[in-house]
Design a protein that fits this description.
- The complex is a heterodimer of chains A (about 350) and B (about 230).
- Helix content of chain A is about 75%, strand content about 0%.
- With about 350 residues, chain A is an all-alpha fold.
- Chain A has one domain: ABC transporter involved in vitamin B12 uptake, BtuC.
- In chain A, helix 2 runs antiparallel to helix 10 and helix 2 crosses helix 11.
- Chain A is globular, with a radius of gyration of 22 Å.
- Chain B is of the alpha/beta class.
- In chain B, helix 3 runs parallel beside helix 6.
- The chains are: A mainly alpha (about 350), B alpha/beta (about 230).
- At the A-B interface, helix 8 and helix 9 of A face helix 2, strand 6, helix 3 and helix 6 of B.
- The structure holds adenosine-5'-diphosphate and magnesium ion.
- The site of adenosine-5'-diphosphate has 11 residues of chain B, from strand 2 and helix 1.
- The site of adenosine-5'-diphosphate (ADP) has 11 residues of chain B, from strand 2 and helix 1.
Chain lengths: ~350, ~230
């Protein structure tokens, strides 16, 4: 009766509807709990940070898990997005709208800020990606690490060098309007996952995966490998920029030191722990690695030790990460459930089908 | 002429690897390029497929120059290369590997071409759901060849398909090359296994340290004394 586990297939549009309904339901539950106060402001903040970290992890996963490179400058792209969005939002009258409780009027500005962040980070991704992607392995890791640090150093010193108030150096870019509501972050997370999922399921996604598997073979079947490597890298940077923009609108003040090399490593740890190339893995480990440090506040000094330990243990017991490269879909789970039900209750009918097939 | 290579010189930095090589391939022919390790055979193939650029010389495919055409565009024009050393997509299934081979083709062509490849390599059909990396060496070679065929190439270039395979598998691979030839395919075959290559080839070129030193029909070279001494063990 083995063939029964593939016998139920939910058609594609229905799958999308199911997923969409479940996502809306999740949003509804969370936001009702927040409004009723069952989820405190403190936890709302943590949930927003989870969302931002999910975007960072799944976007880095495009470059590491799917493209198979090891960039170490993701925090740099986040910083570019954060500063671009933050500077823009300070220049427009969003603060006044938010104070007056007129959040609706700020929506167009928020959209523009997200766009500016994504584009700026994307342009930096392009500038860095074109030379960096000619290298591979350790060299690519080192050059992206260098670029990430350069971005941070530039953000720190550009004002004193050029003599105007732009990033406010290490004093920090303060009083950014706090536009990152739970709903905004939630929508961005869903859209990010949807975009990545759609790209990776397409012909372009196949091309990206084939580069990871074997670049020479990929070239030999006619994939424009330079183009797709750059494409994946820029997509990854753009989404990191979006995360940065959301971060700016949540925290309200930006300091270059936030975007140190360790931030890139933290994001990388999320991806590696979740399983390279698994979006679900990235989502799960971004969640766990955001919540755990909060719960373990008292031993915060040992956070880095815990990270390293977690990684070492992971390498020993699950070298491919929590989820490997496995990606699940809710509707797939539902299909399995339906099959199980059918096996339990409709054994006879499925047996007949099995016979007629033979 | 389907492919015409004229006096190409290829360098790796300061290393002059290919020193003025000329040859051509006509429609329906199997032409083989034989020579010892390091003679420059792969360099020639990689130059034709656009991965390397000649410093001078011309390469015409269907009477158009492809010297400055990008590798992915060259595949689209009908020139497929099956690279040296079984470069398969290790984590994709056999069938996904084949689908990738049709990357430059419209999706509607895939089904028919997969059926054709499975006809040639029944073994691949048995293993269609298996992960590429878990295939044996011979099966991986079959997969690499099948994948190259998925683009419906006008010219198929094979780089040492028999490398590292057991004798019985070498015979199988050459039997399939023969079969492809019989069905009208045009093949440029690079080999170190001179005996087998000369048996299937219409014409052959011998390469030594970056130059072509001898050429003729397959049977002429099989019977040539210098070839016997240098490549066929007596
Ligand atoms: N990437 C490379 N860099 C420098 N030299 C190379 C490179 N690839 C090949 N060569 C040199 O070019 C010559 C021809 O190599 P190749 O074309 O691979 O020979 P064959 O395929 O006939 O064994 C050899 O001397 C080899 O050492
Ligand atoms: Mg070679």
């Amino acid at each position: 009766m083995k063939q029964t586990n593939t016998s139920i297939r939910i058609p594609m549009p229905v799958r999308y509807l199911i997923n969409a309904a479940l996502i809306v339901l999740l949003w509804f539950i969370l936001s009702s709990l927040m409004r009723s106060g069952a989820i405190t402001n403190y936890w709302t903040g943590i949930i927003i940070m989870i969302g931002i970290n999910i975007i960072l992890a799944v976007s880095l996963n495009v470059a590491t898990g799917y493209l198979g490179q090891l960039p170490l400058g993701h925090a740099g792209f986040m910083a570019v997005g954060a500063y671009a969005g933050g500077i823009f939002m300070r220049a427009v009258p969003v603060q006044e709208f938010l104070r007056a409780g007129n959040a609706g009027a700020s929506v167009p500005y928020i959209l523009i800020a997200l766009l500016i962040s994504a584009l700026t980070a994307g342009i930096f991704g392009l500038i860095i990606g074109i030379p960096a992607l000619r290298l591979r392995g350790d060299y690519l890791a080192i050059i992206t690490l260098g670029f990430g640090e350069i971005i941070r150093v530039v953000l720190t010193n550009i004002d004193s060098v050029l003599g105007f108030d732009f990033t406010f150096g290490s004093a920090g870019l303060k009083r950014i309007p706090k536009y990152s509501s739970f709903t905004l972050v939630f929508i961005c997370v869903v859209l990010t996952c949807f975009i990545i999922h759609t790209v990776m399921k397409s012909r372009h996604g196949r091309a990206i995966l084939s580069i990871r598997e074997n670049e020479i073979a990929s070239e030999s079947v006619g994939v424009n490998t330079t183009y797709y490597k750059t494409f994946a890298f820029v997509l990854s940077a753009m989404l990191a920029g979006v995360a940065g923009c959301l971060y700016a609108g949540y925290i309200g003040s930006l300091y270059p030191s936030t975007f140190k090399f360790m931030k890139s490593i933290e994001i990388l740890v999320m991806v590696v722990l979740g399983g390279m190339g698994s979006m679900l893995g990235s989502v799960l480990s971004a969640t766990v690695l955001t919540v755990l440090p909060e719960l373990l506040r008292s031993v915060a000094d040992y956070r880095m030790v815990a990270y390293s330990l977690a990684l070492v243990i992971m390498m020993i017991f699950r070298p491919k990460g929590l989820m490997g490269s496995y990606d699940f879909s809710l509707s797939h789970l539902l299909e399995k459930g339906l099959c199980a039900v059918r096996l339990l209750f409709g054994r006879k009918s499925s047996e007949k089908k099995g016979e007629s097939r033979e | 002429m389907l492919l015409s290579v004229q006096d190409i010189h290829v360098y790796y930095g300061a290393i002059h690897a290919v020193k003025g090589v000329s040859f051509d391939v006509d429609k329906g022919e199997i032409v083989t390029l034989i020579g010892a390790n390091g003679a420059g055979k792969s360099t020639v193939l990689n130059t034709v497929s656009g991965l390397l650029h000649p410093r001078s010389g011309s390469i015409l495919f269907q009477d158009e120059s492809i010297v400055s055409v990008a590798p992915n565009k060259i595949v689209g024009r009908g020139l497929a290369q099956c690279p040296e050393g079984r470069r398969i997509f290790a984590q994709m299934t056999v069938e996904e590997n084949l689908e990738m081979g049709a990357y430059t083709r419209p999706a509607s062509s895939i089904e028919q071409n997969i059926a054709h490849v499975y006809d040639l390599f029944p073994r691949l059909k048995e293993r269609r759901r298996q992960i590429g990396g878990t295939l044996s060496g011979g099966e991986q070679q079959m997969l690499a060849m099948g994948r190259a065929l998925m683009s419906e190439p006008k010219l198929l270039m094979l780089d040492e398909p028999s490398m590292g395979l057991a004798p019985i598998l070498v015979e199988q691979i050459f039997a399939i090359i023969d079969e492809l030839h019989a069905s009208g395919s045009t093949i440029l075959l690079v080999e170190q296994n001179a005996q087998m290559a000369l048996q299937v080839a219409d014409r052959a070129y011998v390469m030594e340290s970056g130059q072509i030193t001898l050429s003729g029909t397959g049977s002429e070279l099989l019977n040539s004394d210098s070839i016997k001494k240098a490549y066929l063990g007596g």
